[in-house]
Amino acid sequence: MALKWIGGHSSSILCLNVNSEGLVASGAERGELTLWDGGGTPTGQLQLPEADDVTSVVFSPCCPTRLYTSHGETISLLDIRSLKEPVECFHVNEEEINCLSVNETDNFLAAADDSGAIKVIDLENKKVTRSLRHSNICSSVAFRPQRPQSLVSCGLDMQVMLWNLQKARPLWTTNLQECEPQENGPQSAGQFFNPPLAHSLSVASCGNLFGCGAQDGKVRIFRVTGVKFERELEFQGHSLGVSQVLFMPGAYWLLTGGNDGKVLLWDVNSDVGKQLKSPAKSLQRRKAHAPASTRKDGKLSKVASNEHTRVLPKVTIEHGEKVNWIACAEIKGSKRVLVADQSSSVSVYPLPEQ
User: Fold this and answer.
1) Which of 307, 328, 211, 311 lies closest to 263 in space, CA to CA?
2) Distance between CA atoms of 277 and 293, rounded to whole angstroms?
3) Nearest-angstrom CA–CA distance, 90 and 324
4) Backbone phi, then psi, for 139, in 5-degree steps?
5) Cα dihedral value 209, 213, 219, 223, nearest 10
6) What is the pLDDT of residues 285-315, one digit of tens each?
């Protein structure tokens, strides 16, 4: 049974983030922003200008009082000790921002938007240092831990990309549709009607492993090796689109949230180990851009897809509502998953010890 945090919003909550001191920020429709203590009591509220939906909130990894928020095409930097007017505003995106990510040294901020653009802001010089691009809506962007110049992104163009801020072009690109089995029958027909539009990304603390959730209900795990990445694992995570993926800090446990109203916890480290020992190893570790249309690859894909069914979640939470965002927090010494949905409350569930 979920504990509900109420009284912080009157509209649907769209995003969540937790700082290093356990303070939670939530953004909602109509410009609502709320801060919560670990007990679920609102400690501060702000109505952002223009009443644009607050689509992303991210605390600085270096300074827990600095909070970056996106609302409409604007990014506002707030000081949570005095939650009033923004300390600074950036107007660099041309369309609504979907996701913010700040690197661990707090000197670059990436903002992904509906035009497919990712604007990378140098926070010291307060100017755009890179404009990266997808061919459709860019839904998620994430800097890699331990590599402050490197980031990954995904979008509704079904592309997953690896970037380095030294270059304007991606180092490596994978089209999720091209990774799929090319078979005649219901599966390929279903794929046509339910393409793998990529919704969410999360990078593990090691910086090399990252997960991607897509509209086809699948979760894909990739490993970065140098200037490219390869698919390590793929499994059917949800019966509807995967709206959120989140690696828990310091672990290879992955939380996923879906449009099917479920929140699931996966032990990715254990599952990757099983997959690498399986006959499908050659498929999983083949180059991400290799064509998947040959008959041989089709057979391999079929083996891999049978393997996927053996990947089972450690924990299943029947939340019951479409998941907008998930976050992980330590409350009273225990890990909790925070869930935002179509309602104006935050749901809090306990998680097992690692």
Assistant:
1) 328
2) 24
3) 25
4) -90, -30
5) -20
6) 333 333 333 222 333 333 344 344 478 999 9
